[in-house]
Amino acid sequence: MTKRSDDKDADVGGSGGGVSEWLTSVWQEIRYSLRTLRKNPGFTLAALAILALGIGANTTIFTVVNAVLLRPLPYPDADRIMMVTRSFGADTINAANMPKFVFWRENNRSFQSLAAYRSMGSGVNLAGGSEPEYVPGLRVSSDFFSVLNVEPGLGRSFTREEDKDGGQQVVVLSDALWRRTFAADPGLIGKAISLNDVSYSVVGIMPESFRFAIPADVIIPLRASATGDKGNNCWVLGRLADGVTREQAAVEMNLIAERFRAANPDMMSNEESAGVLPYQESLTAKAHPLLMILFGAVGLIQLIACANVASLQLARSAARRKQIGIRMALGASWRRIVRQLLTESVVLSFLGGAVGLLLASRGVPLLMQFVPEGMIPRAQEIGFDKQVFLFTLGASILVGLIFGLAPAFQSARVNMSDALKEETGKASMGRGRSRFQSVMVVAQIALSFVLVVSAALLIKTFTNLRNLELGFDPNNILTFQVTLGGSRYKTSEQTLEFQRRALERIKSLPGVETAAVTNTLPLSGSFNLPIEIDGQGSEMMSVEARIVTPEYFQLMALPVKAGRAFGENDTGSSPSVVMVNEAFERKYLTDADPLSRRVIVARVLGDTTSRQIVGVTRDAKHLTIKAEPTPVMFMPVTQVPEKIMLATMTVSPTRFLVRTTVEPLSLSAAVKREVLALDPVLPMTNVRSMDQIVSRSIAPDRFNMFLLGMFAVIGLALAMIGVYATMNYSAIQRTHEIGIRMALGASSTDVLRLILKRGVVVAVIGIVIGLGGAFALAPLIRNLLFGVGATDPVTLAIVAAVLATATLLACFIPARRATKVDPIIALRNE
Q: Whole-angstrom Cα distance, residue 55 to residue 399?
């Protein structure tokens, strides 16, 4: 009796005046919805699977978007932290040099505090064993901690005196290093540790919760000065003063930049100014477009899922017309009918959201395993929080309303008399329902077309990058780096001696063909030097600079197109020489023979040596695999000025390249033994083959292709399921019509053509609409492409053909089944 009462309340219900009565009514409708869904396990499981897939994909990507773009940085009042940059019109470069930072810090009034930082590659033997431990670190100015508004959890930060030349050698450690290496000993404060063979006193331990854009286990003073390093290798952060806006700070920094140019015309071009960006925006700028595209892609999947479930709901509601007619005959209003059907949709969506959340909890860690290193900032902060749960809750409600609203209103528009005359399960689909289902199928095809086109363009991009000519041979090359810091490498002579002895030992190993040294590996970074070309006035230009040993060009298979390569005789006592690439010649030396020109390198660093261009190399991919070759200048390592040598190969790592006759990584252990034999506390890091470096350079494009391709497959599969389900139901509803046609002489081919005709029509309309969507969204995906246009006609034609074929295949099975109808049985059943 209880069940009858519940059903009656759910079916008819009263208006009720109080909140409690309304809540009771809602609870009854929820219970009735759950029972109804349980009685239709086939429909329920199919709808749940589709909804869970859509909501799960959306929750997975939102979890990443939330952590990277929406969640504030983990510092108090993080919105007040700004990045102070060098600005060149519309272009912004975050890196600055020490003199500029010191000038900015001493002359501004907009920032409560201003700090600079830069990464350091330090080799540290903290454990005291035979193997040195590589520890990543930061050099920071004393105001770094006040800008972030964080302090060490144990001990203190740096003082202004410690951040000046001659100050005490002090270090702040990360909580992870403190626990891992020093067993969380609180007595470590005040004790000395060795970094690069230099003794540092530990003054602080950062809290466990501390996170920064550059992971660091050791933090030491930067010691910037107005006469310090003029290379653009540090980044500047500032915390806005109370009452100062970003715009006001930008105006003041522009004025300060003008004053700096007037005082230091050799360090700042006329085009350069200073800019102010929110720190979070500067961190996420590169990842923002991709994340928005991925979020849009899963949004399309969700819309396809909604259209799919809406079609299922509509087909199911057609079979419930008699039930709805009975309820209306018993006094239920159409509003009550709509409310009950919407309740069923929302309940179903909630269940799908719960399963989707479970899928996302597994999907997020899986997704992060495939993300290339450094591609997504703040990756360590990605995880579930309140915002993610609220998003899933809101998405579930919205999805339930989207796919439930139209079927609910369609179902409520029932002719009571006609519905009561129908036999249960024999309800026919009216024109309105049939038209709505066709619209849903068209929408699914159009949305899946946009997804598949995007994926196809990224596949073509990745193929183009894989087949791109690099300009050098990456096969059979082992690379690694060492940081020549500490008291043993304070001069160029000491650095060169280590390099010479290391190359000799490495070349003597079995399986080694040759070895070389450089300051920057191809496709692994940038290093610029200001130069002047003799005969072109005193105009300075900044070019990519590679400091190399003579073996570099043979090792990299980088041909010399004119002149000669460096030789063993190009030493510090011989005439100074440089080499350039073809892009340098095209841009700067079009009016003369390049081998007759001379350049002055780094006059701002006090070097006025005029250097002869002795060779021109073939263009190669030095910066990124997508970028056109840029002007590059090569300098022999034995002729590099002292300041440049110390800045590039002691403060920064020295890179070694080894061409082998065997698998490169198989020699890493032997090479490591030779390096340790020269210096037992010198860590050898970033051991990779050049093939791995090339592969890593296209890893983001591989990831984009994989993820969007997976979404495209999911979207296409959902769309085809929707097409099949709609065509199958349509064929069943037309059984009586087909029986009459076949009784009047229609052949199986005629029936097949009748059913497929509808599939062709919806496919064509969907593809045309999808084509418009692909053109509309082309600007969003253009920046991810290489070697192919966002509206490539060949790609569009192939995708259209594939989608049309898939749609016809999805229609063929229902159409084929319809041709097997026995006219006698069909007419008798009706």
A: 9
The residue written with tokens 């290798």 in the block is: 233
Q: Is the Cβ–Cβ distance between 320 and 422 less than 8 Å?
A: no
The two structure tokens encoding residue 110: 């907009």
CA gap 818, 830 in Å, rounded: 16
> What's the rounded Cα separation, in Å, for the pair 779 and 782?
5
Candidates 603, 514, 620, 509; CA nearest to 559 is 620
pLDDT, tens digit, 9 for 90 and up, residues 253-269: 999 999 998 888 878 87
β-pairing, 170-173 vs 198-205, is parallel
What's the distance, Cα to Cα, between the start and end of the chain in Å?
36
Q: CA dist 392 to 290, 348, 502, Å? A: 21, 14, 57
Which contacts of 333-337 are long-range, i.e. CB under 8 A and separated by 24 or more positions? Answer: 334/412, 334/413, 336/12, 336/13, 337/408, 337/411, 337/412
Give the tokens for residue 793: 């006609």
Q: Could you tell me how far CA 531 lies from the centroid of its own chain?
A: 35
CA atoms of 602 and 576, how far apart (whole Å): 14
Amino acid at 597: R
Domain ranges within the chain, ordered by starting residue:
32-76+286-424, 90-270, 428-469+697-830, 484-682
Q: Which amino acid is at 307?
A: A
Q: Which pLDDT tens digit goes with each residue over 659-715?
A: 999 999 999 999 999 998 998 877 788 899 999 999 999 988 889 899 889 999 988
Q: Model pTM? A: 0.80
Residues 6+ apart with CB under 8 A from 3: none
Dihedral in degrees, nearest 10, Cα atoms 403, 408, 409, 410: 90
Q: Are the C-beta atoms of 266 and 531 separated by less than 8 Å?
A: no
By CB neighbour count within 10 A (0-12 exposed, 13-18 middle, 19+ buried), where does 289 fall? middle
Helix %, strand %, coil % for the chain, to 5?
Answer: 55, 15, 30
Signed CA dihedral, 550, 552, 554, 560: sign only: negative
Q: Tell which residue, 627, 237, 337, has the closest CA to residue 465.
A: 627
Q: How many CA atoms lie within 13 A of 158 on its CB side?
A: 28
Tokens (6 digits) for 392: 């899933």
The neighbour count for residue 646, using CB atoms within 10 Å, is: 19
Complete DSSP assignment for 490-501: SSHHHHHHHHHH
Cα separation, 32 vs 39, in Å, equals 11
Question: At residue 420, what is the residue type?
Answer: L
